[in-house]
Amino acid sequence: xxxxxxxxxxxxxxxxxxxSYDGRFVIGVLTTGIYCRPSCPARRPKRENVRFFNDNxxxxxxxxxxxxxxxxxxxxxxxxxxxxxxxxxxAAEEAPKLDRLAEAVGYSPFHFQRIFKRAMGVxxxxxxxxxxxxxxxxxxxxxxxxxxAIYEAGYSGPARFYEDSGKRLGMTPSAWRKGGKGxxxxxxxxxxxxxxxxxxxxxxxxxxxxxxxxxxxxHETFPNATIERAGDALDELAERAVAAVDNPARPHDLPLDVxxxxxxxxxxxxxxxxxxxxxxxxxxxxxxxGRPKAVRAAGTACGANPIAVLIPCHRAKRSDGSxxxxxxxxxxxxKLLAKEAGRR
Length: 344
Ligand SMILES: [Zn+2]
Known about the structure:
alpha/beta; four-stranded mixed β-sheet; 14 helices; binds zinc ion
C-alpha cells in the first residue's frame, strides 16, 4: 500500500519513466526479484508481475534486490543529500559554495549540482539567491516576467501543466480571466472535522473549496458568473470533498476546475507533489516552479489558491521554519499539518 500516491498513478508514472517520482516509491518486479526507480530505463514487466513499495526498505524486506541499472538504493541517498544541502543553504548567513555543499554530502560538485537541479528545478546557487531574496523580503516578481520565466522553464503553457498534473487540476479555458463570465457556479456547504466547508463547482469540477460558510467569496472571485445555491445536485461531490479534506493523506480523484497565471499554476502543481505530512519552503516552491527569486510571488500564489486542502498550500512554510500565512488562519494550518503528521 503506497502512502503518497495511488497505484494506478504509480504505474502510469513508471510507464512514463517520470523522474519526479523517484524517491517516492519503488517498483518491485516479482519475476526477477529486483526493484527499480520509477524512472528506470529498463523494459517494463507485465503489470501483474509488479508490486509497489513505499521505499527501498520495504522492497528489501520482501526479499527484492536493487536494480543494477537504475540503482534505486542511491535515490534515498540523493534525496537525503539534497535535503541536507537545502538545510545548509537555508541556515547559512552567506550562501555556501557548491564545492562545500558537495563535500558535506559526499558527492562530486558536478554530480551534486546535477541531482540538485533535477530535484529542485534550479542550481544550488540559484536556490540560495531565492532564499536570500526571501530574507530580504523584497518583491522581485513581476507577473509578466514570471509568466515568461515559467515558459522558459519548459512549460509550453497551462495546457502542458494540466497534462503534467496527475489530478486533473483544472480543465478549462479562459472564462476565469473574465471573472467567470458565462459560467454557472453552484455551491453548498458541508461539515468537516476542521469546520464548515464551502464547496463550489462548475459543470467541470470544483472551482472553490474554502473554510467559509458564505458564498460572498465566490462573488469576489467570480464577479461575472451566475452563482446559485445547489440543490442536492452537489451532494455527492460535496461528500467526496469532505472525505478528501478529512483524510488529506488519502489520494482523491476529484475533478478540479481552476485557473491561475502560469506561475501560480506551476506553484499549485508543486504543492500537490508535497507528500502529506511534509512541508516545503516558499523558496523551494519558487525554485521548483522555475523562478527561484520569486519567493514572494510563490507565497502570493499559495494565498491565491482557490482549493483549500486539495491543493495543499498549508504544506508551504517559510525557510526559517515558521508557518508563514494561511487564508483560513494559522490555527487551521497547524491543525491540518498536525493531522497529516499523525498528531492530533
Ligand atoms: Zn531498474
